[in-house]
Every structure is written in structure tokens, then in C-alpha cells.
Amino acid sequence: MAKKAYRELSEAERKHHSLSARVSRYVVIGAAILGVTMLIIGLTLYSVAVSNQYISTSFNLCRSASKVLSELAETEALSGAVMERYNSMSDAERAEVGTEAYDARYSDLMARDDYQDMRALLAFFLESSDVYDIYLGMYDREHSALVYIADPSEEDVALPGYWESVEPAEAEKFLNWDGTGTLYDISNMEKYGWICSAGVPLKNAAGETFAFVLADITLGHVLPKLAMFTLQYTVALAVLILAFGWFMLRYMNRNIVKPINDIAQAAQTYVRDKREDAQTNNHFARLDIRTGDEIENLSIVMSQMEEDLVAYEDNLTKVTAEKQRIGTELELATRIQADMLPNIFPAFPERQEFTIYASMTPAKEVGGDFYDFFFVDQDRLAMVIADVSGKGIPAAMFMMMAKSMIQTQAASGRGPREVLETVNHLICQNNREEMFVTVWFAILDLNTGILTAANAGHEFPILKKPGGCFEIFKDKHGFVIGGMDGVKYREYEIRLEPGARLFVYTDGVAEATSADKELFGMDRAVQALNDAADQSPEGLLRAVNAAVSRFVGDAEQFDDLTMLCIEYKGKEENR
Fold first, then answer.
1. Which residues pair with residue 443 across a beta bridge?
2. DSSP 200-259
3. How many alpha carbons fall within 13 Å on the CB side of residue 80?
4. Of 453, 504, 459, 449, whose CA–CA distance to 480 is shortest?
5. pLDDT tens digits, one per residue of 373-386
6. Per-residue confidence at 1, pLDDT binned at 50, 70, 90?
7. What's the confidence (pLDDT) of residue 12?
8. Are 196 and 184 a contacting pair, CB within 8 Å?
């Protein structure tokens, strides 16, 4: 069968779809979103602060004016005279406000000295402040109106007896004020637009309110300062976001994108040189990656692997027997592969929330299967089981790279779906050997027992609920890792109750073949688990392995046999 030919990406496509390009786009988008969010929050906080400042200033101005006006006996007399004439008018007469006939009713009051003195006093406070207007008025609860008594404004002056409608809630707020806090109300008036009125009541000897000293602030007082703040804040924020974006871009490229590309390129060069029998060494050692994380660890492991392989290859040239040379090389690869997998049990003995056990028996000296488990953070445990296409050293090398990539992506805080999609993209970018791997990847929250998983073409997990039997859990499958770039994977959740057990495996279990060419099958695997249902995860794996060995007999092992089992016990307080 002819090998399928794949179209390579052009240089323009590589630049657009590369990890570096994606990181750049995500940093720019993230910085823009962060900048807009911070601008909105800053403007909101500043607007509130400026508004509160103006409200407080207006209220204090009214309080100062009220102390002066309360000392004048004429204030109560003038207010009483205005309100007496206002209350004596019919609704029809009140509706004529602003007409000559209406003004004639109060003309004698405007000629009084006390009225002129109050206007002069209020004018003094108006000129010495930044408010729109300060005036003397009284609320009419019955008609929901504000009645003007004295207004110092020279433009659009409100004469004594003039009134305007207000919301009933505003009248009640001012008339029922208990003297605590700041007295103000914000409303949208047809004539003035959005306006804030702060005030202080004037009371007579009997404690009755006979007038209010009121000060108005319009939106025009806030807008100029808000515009200046917006300009300054936007410029400062833009500089900060640009600096942050530049730093993050450099950091991501230097510590993630470039090291991964360097390792991938070194691996490609290594494979090519080995294929062409070139005498070139130190493909990974010359990288000098110093990120201080899993990527640096990957480069160290790969460098050590290459050094060990080179050292053994030099020794093998002195050995005349080809079988001994191959055996030595495979023995080294087996040891390296075994060291890459968690092999110390019991694992995490200090953690009481779970018990985990895993094993991998390669069909050859080295295999393409692998498992892994590690903590993403203090309370989340990641678990992986995978099966690489092919056998031998190429599969083992591909396995080690895939394993390290999965662990690196998981350590960044991504969920199973994002981890598989990112690893698939990275492998597809540098996969000229057209290898692939099936992966089941999950993260278990040890606090809640919620297991979030994603499946990239791997076998179905087998689940045992507390008090129940082992049953196959048919989860949602996605395409294999490395098969096609851009594949989307789906996540699903399983809630593990204390006592639940989860068994995952590679196809070497179901496809174990007897001498009669009969497959072991999933029914026998489930039966073996249920026969040993009360045993620990280690006991369960040994029971399945024993059942497979009895079934296969003397037949040659066809595929790698890899299994992992976890028993969730939950937090001690929840047991």
C-alpha cells in the first residue's frame, strides 16, 4: 500500500499557525481586554469619587449657609410669607407660574429688604463655591413640588413663589431627614438634565422645618475633570499595557515557544542523523535550555538519553556479537523508559484521599505504551495512559516526548481538553514520521471527587461505584494525537464517591491473544476485575495480569500491557 503523501505547510502558513504566532495573538488580545477592563473600572471609581466630592462640598456649603441664615429671624418670616401665599392659591392659579399675574402676587415680597439681604448672602456663597446654584426653598409634600423662596442667580432666576415638580421620593427624603449622613438627591430634570441637589433644613424654635438651603450640581461640573482623567489614565494605561504585553511576549517566546521548538528541531535532527548514520552527537546538550521547569527537565532527560545512547553505541562497536550489541542498546532504552514512568509504590504515601497503582509490561524490550500521574496543584491529581503507534525505540522516544509535553501543558493549569488540543498541535507541527498516540487524560479534584477527562481515541475506562460492580464507562472519543492538526476534543465529568475505583488500560489487555488466535476481550477483563473487586488497586492489576497470562499461555505477547487503577477515598472528614 502506497504511503500517503501529506502537504507541508508553506512558510506563510507556518508563521500564521505557529505556536509563536498564536502566543503573540493571545498576548495582544489579553492585553487589550485587560486594558479596557481596567479603564472601565478606573473611570467608574473616579466618577464615583468626583461625584462624592462634589456632593460633599455642596452639602457642606449648604450647612455653612444654613448656620448664617438660621441666625436671621427674617428667614423664617420670609419663608412663612411665601408659603402662606403659595398654599392659599388654587391649582389653577399655581399653574400660571411665570406669568405677570403670578409674579404680581409676590411682587411686594421681592421689594422687601430681608429678601434682598438673603439673595445677597446666598450670592456670596454661590460666588465663593463651584456649585451651579445655591438657593432657599421649601418642599410641598401634597403637590410633590419644590417652592423657591430666594434665589441669587442672575440668569434664569427663580422668583419667590415659583415652583417645579419633583419626584415624591425626593420630597419625602428631604422632609423626613433624620440629620444623619449627607442629604442629597440625584434626578434627571427636563430643564437641567442630570442634576444633584444637596440640602440642609432650617428649623424654628419648635423644631419644625420651615425651609431648606439647597445647592445644585450638574453633570457639567463632573465632565471636565472626567475628560482630563480619562486622557491621562488612558495614556498611562496604554504605556503600562504595552510594556506588560511586550514583557509577556518575550517571556513566553523565550521560556516556552523557543525551547519547545528547539527540542523538536533537535529531535528531528537526531532522527535524521541516526537514519543517515551521521557521526554527530550532542543534539540536545547544545540546546542549553534554562527555563527552570518541565521543559528544561525534558531537555536534560533527552540530553542524558542521547549521551547514554552514544556511550553505549561506542561500546557496542567493540562487541563482535550483533545480538549482544542490540541487547545492550535495548537494555539501556528499557531502563530509560522505566525511569520516565512513576515506579515507586505506594505513591504519595502522605496523601490519604486516594490509592493508585500502575504497571507497564512492554511486548518488546521497550514499548510505546506509557502511564503517568502527578499533582497539578495541591488538590488536583492528573492521570494519563496512552498507546503510541509502532513498537521499539522509535515508539519509546515518541512516547517520552508526548509524555513530557502532556505534563508540561497540564502544569500550566489547562484542563484535559486544552492539554490534548495543544499537545496535538505541537506534535503535528513536527511529525514527519507520521506517528500518533491514543491518550486518555484526566484531572481528579481530591476535594470534590469530580474527575474531568478527555479521550483521544483511547480505550473506554472501567468504573466501579461504591457497592457496585466494575462496568465499562463509554466516554466521548476524539481523534488520536498526532493524526491531524486542529482537532477539537471534548471533556466529560465523573463524580467519584468515596470507595469508587477507576481502571484504565491500553488495548494490549483486550487484544491479548491465545495460542488459538482468540482475543482475551473486554468481557474477560471486566470479569477478572469483579472477581477481585475487594482488593486494592495493586491487587486488581495483579489479578487482571494473572488472568491475561493464564489465557495467553505460551503464546508470544503481541502488544504492550499497560494498566492503571485508582481508588478514591475522599477527604477524611467526608468519609
1. 382, 452
2. EEEE-TTS-EEEEEEEEEEHHHHHHHHHHHHHHHHHHHHHHHHHHHHHHHHHHIIIIIHH
3. 8
4. 459
5. 999 999 999 999 99
6. very low
7. 62
8. yes
The structure's pTM equals 0.46
User: Could you tell me how many residues make up the chain?
Assistant: 575
Listed in sequence order, the residues at least 6 apart from 467 whose beta carbon sits closer than 8 Å to its beta carbon are: 499
What number of CA atoms fall less than 13 Å from residue 416's CA on the CB side?
27
- Opening angle at CA 153, ends 149 and 155, nearest 5: 125
What angle is formed at CA 321 by the lines to CA 315 and CA 327, rounded to 5 degrees?
70
Within 8 A by CB and 6+ apart from 274, the residues are none
Distance CA 406, CA 454 (A): 13
User: Which H or E run contains 34?
Assistant: helix 19-69
Nearest to 168 by CA among 133, 195, 148, 139: 139
How far is Cα 263 from Cα 19, in angstroms, rounded to an integer? 14
Lowest mean pLDDT among 87-91, 243-247, 306-310, 317-321: 317-321
Residue 211 in contact with residue 149, Cβ under 8 Å?
Answer: yes
DSSP state of 454: E
Per-residue pLDDT, 337:
64
d(CA 241, CA 96): 60
pLDDT of residue 317: 66
Question: How much is the average pLDDT of 516-534?
Answer: 92
Average pLDDT, the chain: 82
**Cβ–Cβ under 8 Å, residues 495 and 454:** no
Find the Cα–Cα–Cα–Cα dihedral 371, 374, 376, 382, rounded to 10°: 40
Bridge partners, residue 198, by sequence: 184, 215
Report strand pairing: 477-478 vs 450-456: parallel
- CA 395, CA 334: separation in Å to the nearest integer? 12
How far is it, in rounded angstroms, from Cα 397 to Cα 274? 13
Residue among 393, 391, 375, 395 nearest 383 (CA)? 375
Q: Indicate the pLDDT class of residue 187, thresholds 50, 70 and 90.
A: confident
